[in-house]
Design goal:
five-stranded mixed beta sheet; 23 helices; disordered C terminus
């Protein structure tokens, strides 16, 4: 279907449309900005900016990177075998502007959300979706609790790269001027898709559908069209490879550090895969399908995000209607558009992408999580908007009864979706205001970090339990030395040098760990402070071993040293 060219009114309306969508999102993103608490994986790898932005940072500082990937002990390359450091590098200037604090974290992550919304609007504009449809779809997405709270949970790192995927499609989505889809355009599209895969490995699940789309929509102008198609496909794949090249750098640094070349790297990857048990779930196909469907549903209805922040997995209100609009409606609109000869290559792609993603996700069974599926959300909104645009009667007067009726139905559907999302987000904010979050998403984590930062003598903070080290490092801006392992000799030397030692544990000290550490340090018992949820449940305890409280114990020479690479 050939779509009309953009007129002056449309061109003028687009900036207003984008601004309106972003204002809606900014209002939600900054509401109750301190809640919930900062979860550990909600700032990984962001926390590494502390060492670069704070020139007077304490030593040692926790830094979890792959072997050989911490250049000059300041510049990380890879922290994981399956995702790059986009959030670190893109967030670095933003943290410099907004500051390393809870508010700074949320504003930085809001910028990532804005990038996804802008990319969605760019894609819809390139596809000549009517401005009013694109605007309503964008506003509904900006209100969506699954989108809003992705940027307050660990889902921020798996949602953000979808901006690259949307831009990859946008580069080739203009059906008005197919001749402009030059080789360089295909390479640029591939680079954007490669950047998405670099953001998180699950974006590779979209590559098969994208590649088929490239082949199907390439120029067919000569008898040698088949070779033209494959040339475009090869150009696109070369762009993907270039976009993922950062992985190769990180892997090369691992191989260099470990020795043994490719064989040494292969052994390391094999051992890491065994620890992760990435493909170890021996589930039958039916259970894999059920797990994949459950994860996708939890991501789309914010049941996953709700469970992270509050415990129970509860979908947002009216989730059945929402799923109907985001899953069933685009498929039905595609079928209708195909029958009416109004379908577009982009609409077909937007339906194929989730199928490609879920098909490859089956290989992992139940080893993935809902946060791996959150990228389906913007794609579903783009599919709905594109489908509604394709279903509108074409070539008829604007006052045609059929077109008016179709427009009314489309508007009603999008407004219904927006209203459902407003209700869902409002419920989450009300629950946050009442509870402050639970567990490691409790605002108790924020208070713990601030209290450690406020201690009069800069202590050594030790985090033997998973979950507290990274948020404290970022919220304190690297001003507090940190370690993940309790080493009695080093702790004692630190105390004898006149510096305090604090140990933060998750939950209450039911096993008497602080008393055991006191004996191991040969030091007086610590002052213990409990950080609880608003309902009184202990989230963490902080034991403060004061250097001034020797209790008559001799210190020796008081020398002290810590390996900053710990």
């Amino acid at each position: 279907m050939t779509q009309p060219a953009a007129g002056p009114a449309r061109v003028a309306a687009l900036p207003i449309l984008v601004l309106g969508v972003l204002l809606v999102y900014a209002a939600w993103a900054t509401h109750d900005i301190e809640l919930p608490g900062i979860y550990m994986d909600s700032v990984n790898p962001d926390y590494l900016v502390a060492k670069l932005l704070n020139r007077a940072h304490a030593e040692p500082l926790i830094a979890w990177v792959l072997p050989g990937n911490y250049l000059a002990d300041r510049f990380p390359v890879l922290v994981s075998m399956y995702h790059g450091l986009q959030q670190f590098w893109l967030g670095l200037p933003l943290y410099a502007i907004f500051g390393m604090s809870v508010a700074g974290i949320r504003l930085t992550h809001m910028a990532f959300g804005i990038a996804v919304l802008v990319a969605t609007m760019v894609l819809l504009a390139r596809a000549r979706v009517p401005v009013w449809i694109a605007g309503l779809a964008g506003i509904a997405l900006a209100f969506d609790p699954a989108f809003v709270f992705a940027y307050r949970t660990q889902s921020y790192i798996t949602m953000s790269p979808v901006a690259w995927l949307l831009l990859s499609m946008a580069l080739l989505a203009d059906g008005v001027h197919p001749a402009t889809h030059t080789a360089s355009r295909h390479v640029a599209s591939g680079v954007c898709c490669g950047f998405a895969v670099l953001g998180y490995f699950v974006y590779a699940f979209y590559v098969p559908a994208m590649l088929l789309w490239i082949v199907a929509t390439s120029r067919v102008a000569t008898p040698g069209a088949v070779s033209t198609r494959w040339r475009d496909a090869v150009g696109w794949l070369s762009g993907v490879a270039f976009g993922c090249a950062y992985y190769a750098l990180g892997y090369a640094l691992v191989a260099r550090k470990l020795g043994g070349g490719i064989a040494g790297l292969a052994a390391y990857v094999t051992e890491s895969s065994k620890r992760l048990d990435a493909f170890g779930a021996a589930l039958p196909l039916g259970e894999r399908v059920s797990a994949t469907a459950a994860f996708a549903e939890a991501a789309l209805t914010n049941a996953w995000g709700h469970a992270l922040m509050f415990g129970p997995r509860e979908p947002q209100p009216f989730s059945t209607i929402k799923l109907t609009l985001l899953i069933s409606a685009p498929v039905a609109l595609l079928a209708y558009a195909e029958l009416r000869n109004r379908s577009t290559p982009l609409l077909r792609l937007l339906i194929a992408l989730p199928l490609s993603f879920c098909a490859l996700a089956l290989a992992f069974g139940d080893l993935l999580g809902g946060h791996h599926f959150v990228s389906l959300l913007p794609l579903a909104y783009a599919a709905l908007a594109t489908g509604l645009a394709a279903a509108l009667p074409a070539g008829l007067p604007l006052d045609c009864a059929r077109r008016r009726a179709s427009s009314v139905l489309a508007t009603a559907g999008l407004l219904t979706l927006a209203a459902i999302n407003v209700a869902g987000s409002q419920r989450e904010f009300e629950t946050l205001e009442r509870t402050g979050g639970v567990g490691l998403y409790s605002d108790a984590v924020n208070r713990l970090a601030r209290d450690i930062d406020a201690l009069p003598r800069r202590p050594l903070a030790v985090f033997p339990d998973w979950g507290l080290a990274l948020p404290v490092t970022l919220i304190t801006g690297g001003r507090v030395a940190s370690s993940a392992v309790v080493i009695p000799g080093e702790a004692r030397r630190w105390l004898c040098s006149g510096r305090d030692v604090v140990i933060a544990i998750v939950g209450a000290d039911d096993a008497g760990r602080f008393a055991a550490w006191s004996r191991a340090f040969d030091w007086a018992p610590p002052r213990v402070v409990t950080y609880a949820q608003r309902d009184g449940v202990a989230v963490a305890q902080l034991g403060v071993f004061a250097s001034s409280d020797q209790g008559g114990r001799a210190c020796g020479d008081g020398s002290f040293g810590l390996d900053s690479r710990r």
